[in-house]
Amino acid sequence: MKHWVWMSVSAMALAGNVAFASEELAKAKNCTTCHSTTARLVGPSLKEISARYAKQENIEDKLTQRVLKGGGGVWGVVPMPANAQVSEAEARALVKWIMTQK
Length: 102
Fold this sequence. Notes:
This protein is an all-alpha fold.
């Protein structure tokens, strides 16, 4: 197999594993310190986030940036801090998983 094909296959497999392990990834990246699937903690529940943004176009990009850079004023007075320990691929996988929570 050519080297570039092997690298592409490996990258897709790695990206698939990041997306597949989203619940574990959320725990590993400390998302669950502030967010629960069903109840408000410091921030909104994952189900609340999914419901609020379900019909918005291109929301994945916006929420990925919010995970990475943080933000405030959307869900109340407590701002969401930036998450330097989360890569863009991990943030995107987390957002995709969050948006499946119903």
